[in-house]
Design goal:
With 665 residues, the protein is α/β, with parallel strands linked by helices. Helices cover 32% and strands 22% of the residues. The chain starts with 17 loop residues before the first helix and ends with a helix. The structure holds 5'-O-[(S)-butoxy(hydroxy)phosphoryl]adenosine.
Length: 665
């Protein structure tokens, strides 16, 4: 790949607030730079110090053994994730403190929110009981347990129970369908599924158990299904001998289940991530390194303060689903070892109304808030009035993850949610990396809208060409990680060759996440999008992300997706799919034509004439996966005027595609 031209000009800078920096774990950019330098020059000493913050049944003999692409961390050490999430807090006298705050989507008979506070004691009791349930169902150390549940506390309990006995979990997001369950159960060779009868989503029941039943007609690998009854709706099918009620099994289970000492390199879990093509990849994470890295990054990125938590002054909320890596790492495993309570919410952001999140932040006095750019753009579209009627003054740090955040959305997040007071941490990472890789630290880093800033401590990130040589300042290239880190993926379950091909063959010797990036004159990183999201227009490589950002900086635009399509003259043309903040103008009207012209001129002004879209489609929705990622390959097919033949099963709403095709004509 030649270098991507970068035309996005963004010079606004925001220093960490002085008051905030004063007490922060990392309190200045100089301190960050010192720590970072040491972590790269003497990684073994650095990581040993981090690992010592945790409980180990047996110490490691070597910090790292590395023979690319294979890394072993804390070799010979024995530890347990659940022990470090629960018992360690209890041993330190914090047993009665809140570990998880849970809020249901629905309301009680008086219309009041339904909230549960789970202490470390409560959680350890239930986790131990469920661990004994799993054992009684024949689950042994090393057996893969499939979990397909809604966002209920029992999901966290089930995963921690697996960790307690050393059974790797494979959690499937509750929005996925039967065929996704079948594929993952088969790939993971899992004979047991833990599920719910249903989950609540915007007031409706999602029939989880029915999806499992359907999946199990397509595979005979599963002999045991445990069902937590959440929705208690009618008509749930029951297979005697195979299906068991959670409550029934828990009633007889012992509360005593010592945590199993796990080898640092024992498999902790598998999490499937969809590739742009082919079947999902079962990303493998192991125990010790994942534990150390997620806990450290949670502490530093969100500046977590256990001493404030003890006074009820610190509550962290990540709005992701536990079915994604964000939920694994930054709702559960990275948070509990830090002794800071983590808020878990069952429902969606606009139920019963568009102010649900802000109402919750006000009621619970949330201090650290972590969400996704796609959500932020939805909040913008819904309007500020839903936010400003709530008091969000408890907030101290705002985070974002999942895709590049366009500067407009960043500024809105800062102003409307953060009251111009809260540092924003734009965290770049992946399912494969386990934890944050590039991110500002809230007390140290001067931030610029759209940039994920600096490498995390211990991370050696660079922007290179395909030979692995660093490119110049502000020159686009391929993002790589040059040194191993504790929570790096250990492979793709059952597919060694795909692991090597996907991550280790584009740039020899380095981990390649397949994202494009550039580094600016301040040493800040900018993600320009997936390497395959680059459009070559008349010989210029344009990152789709930059054109999208330019469109969204137009007053009338809420969200935009940009793809390339074959163009006679330029090689590729630019097609822009634009969601407006206001009403869509009538198709074919003068208003529509004027608006499109205005949008094109705006992009021309922001980025230069080369970036002006050749096609603009005004739409009310975009095809997205259930995790909120725009399915660009579908948009590419539509823009090229071709028929859609590829898989659309992960699409959230299929009618969107039909409407776009109809519009294209
Ligand atoms: C891909 C990983 C990490 C948990 C959620 C997604 C994109 C993620 C950012 C960010 C720009 C980002 C990248 C990455 N991405 N965060 N802050 N800025 N891009 O996990 O499904 O494994 O996706 O998401 O393209 O490679 P995932």
């Amino acid at each position: 790949m030649s270098s991507t031209e970068s035309m996005l000009q963004e010079n606004r800078r925001f220093d960490p607030p002085v008051e905030f920096a004063k007490d922060a774990h990392v309190a200045s950019i100089e301190q960050y730079e010192r720590l970072h330098q040491r972590s790269i020059e003497d990684p073994e000493a650095f990581w040993a110090e981090e690992a010592e913050k945790h409980h180990w049944f047996e110490p490691w003999t070597r910090v790292l053994e590395y023979d690319a692409p294979d890394a072993k961390w804390f070799v010979g050490g024995k530890t347990n994730l659940a022990y470090n999430c629960l018992d360690r807090q209890i041993d330190a006298g914090l047993g009665d403190q809140t570990a998880i705050v849970w809020e249901a989507e629905g309301f009680d008979a008086d219309g009041k929110p339904v909230v549960e506070h789970w202490s470390y004691h409560d959680l350890r009791r239930e986790v131990s009981k469920f661990a004994n349930v799993l054992k009684a169902q024949g689950v042994n150390k090393g057996d893969v347990v499939t979990i397909y549940m809604g966002m209920v506390p029992q999901l966290a309990i089930a995963m921690l129970a697996c960790a307690r006995i050393g059974a790797p979990h494979s959690i499937i997001f509750g929005g996925f369908s039967a065929s996704a369950i079948r594929d993952r159960v088969e790939d993971g060779k899992s004979r047991i599924v833990v599920t719910c009868d249903g989950s609540f989503r915007r007031g409706k029941v999602v029939p989880l158990k029915a999806n499992v039943d359907e999946a199990l007609t397509m595979t005979d690998r599963v002999d045991t299904v445990i069902v937590y009854e959440r929705t208690k709706h009618d008509g749930v099918n029951w297979v005697e001998g195979r299906d068991h009620r959670w409550a029934g099994l828990m009633a007889d289970a012992s509360e005593n289940c010592p945590a199993e000492p796990m080898d640092s390199e024992d498999l902790a879990f598998i999490l499937y991530t969809s590739g742009s093509t082919g079947k999902p990849k079962g990303i493998m994470h192991t125990t010790g390194g994942y534990m150390v890295y997620t806990a450290m990054t949670a502490r530093l990125t969100f500046d977590l303060k256990p001493e404030l938590a003890r006074e009820g002054q610190e509550l962290y909320w990540c709005t992701a689903d536990i079915g994604w890596i964000t939920g694994h790492s930054y709702i559960v495993y990275g948070l509990l070892p830090n002794a800071v309570p983590t808020l878990m919410f069952e429902g969606g952001p606009n139920y019963p109304a568009e102010d649900r999140f802000w109402d919750m932040i006000e009621r619970h006095k949330v201090t650290k808030f972590y969400t996704a750019p796609t959500a932020i753009r939805a909040f913008m579209k819904w309007g500020e009035e839903h936010v400003t009627k709530h008091d969000l003054s408890s907030l101290k740090v705002l985070g974002t993850v999942g895709e590049p955040i366009n500067p407009e959305a960043w500024m809105w997040y800062r102003k409307v949610i953060g009251g111009e007071r809260c540092p924003i941490v734009d965290t770049w990472w992946q399912t494969e990396t386990g934890g944050h890789m590039l991110t500002p630290l809230p007390g140290a880093t001067s931030t610029t809208p759209g940039s994920c800033c600096r490498p995390m401590l211990g991370i050696d990130a660079a922007v290179v060409n395909s030979e692995g040589d660093e490119v110049g300042v502000n020159e686009g290239g391929i993002l790589v990680i040059r040194k191993p880190w504790p929570s790096m993926l250990r492979g793709i379950y059952g597919d060694r060759q795909r692991f090597v091909d996907t991550y280790w063959s584009k740039v020899p010797g380095y981990y390649c996440p397949a994202d494009g990036a550039r580094k600016d004159e301040h040493g800040n990183f900018w993600i320009t999008g997936r390497i395959d999201d680059v459009i070559v227009v008349a010989g210029h490589n344009l990152g789709t992300m930059e054109v999208e950002s330019a469109l969204v900086s137009h007053d009338g635009v809420a969200e935009a997706a940009v793809v390339g399509f074959p163009h006679d003259v330029k090689g590729n043309g630019i097609a822009a799919y634009v969601i407006l903040r206001g009403e869509l103008p009538a198709a074919g009207s003068d208003d529509e034509a004027a608006l499109k012209k205005g949008l094109s001129a705006h992009v021309g002004k922001e980025l230069g004439p080369i970036a002006k879209p050749d096609q603009i489609l005004l739409t009310d929705a975009l095809p997205k996966t259930r995790s909120g990622k725009i399915m660009r390959r579908l948009l590419r097919t539509i823009a090229a005027g071709e028929e859609i033949k590829s898989d659309t099963t992960t699409l959230e709403d299929r009618t969107v595609v039909e409407r776009l095709i109809a519009q294209r004509g």
